[in-house]
Specification:
Distance between the termini: 44 Å
CATH class: Alpha Beta
Helix content: 25-40%
CATH topology: Aspartate Aminotransferase, domain 1
Order of helices and strands: HEEEEHEEH
Shape: globular
Strand content: 25-35%
Length: 116
């Protein structure tokens, strides 16, 4: 089941303090200036904030919907295929991203730290 960007907009803007914005020239959603999701229409996907553990679980559960590219490998994001994701899953994903960005226990950087 495909999810339209209008449906994503409706879900995102229903979350507290979310505003529509842009990121790298594409439509995006932010909370107090912090990105929670942005459209990648060139690959029919939404980039959604997710910690590394959440991302791994999502990809393992359904790699037809959730994926990652080399560009995002070191960052806490997951890509979601809009042509395959269910609207209920999108609601959960955006809620997860909102919690990640608004949590007081945020890491200093979204980059994965090297183990020493």
């Amino acid at each position: 089941m495909a999810v339209s960007f209008d449906a994503i907009r409706k879900i995102a803007l229903s979350l507290a303090n979310v505003e529509e914005s842009t990121s790298y020239g594409t439509p995006a959603f932010k909370v107090r200036g912090k990105l929670i999701a942005r459209l990648r229409d060139d690959i029919d996907a939404l980039v959604v904030a997710a910690d590394f553990e959440q991302r791994s679980e999502l990809i393992a559960a359904d790699p037809e919907i959730y994926f990652i590219t080399d560009h995002y490998m070191e960052f806490e994001w997951v890509l979601v295929r809009l042509s395959r994701v269910h609207p209920d899953a999108m609601r959960d994903l955006l809620g997860m991203a909102w919690k990640k960005v608004t949590s007081k226990k945020r890491p200093v950087s979204g980059r994965r730290r090297a183990l020493r």
